Write the structure tokens for this entry.
Amino acid sequence: MPLKTIVVAVIIAAIVLVSGLILLGLAGDFLVDWAWFSAVGYLSVFWTILSTKTVIFFAVFVCSGAFLWLNGLLASRFSGRGKHASCSSSCPGMWRGLDSSPGSPASSGS
């Protein structure tokens, strides 16, 4: 087996192991809280707390996603794409697609 394949396999195994340990810890916290609230007779409080945390998480997720989408939309709209001539195919690969206006990296030759 080539060394690169072994390294990739070890990295994937480490990621799976760390992810599994994190999920195991989260499941343990959930089960301990569920058992404790159930033992003291406040299981409805547990479900209320859990549902409130879930609703708040998804609300913040949707608001953050909308904010980032709007930010990307405005950046794309105000970036002036299409106003400048793009670098020709003779440009180095890292500069291809950038504008060739004065002062841009494509026109400075570096």
About this structure: The mean pLDDT is 83. The radius of gyration is 26 Å.
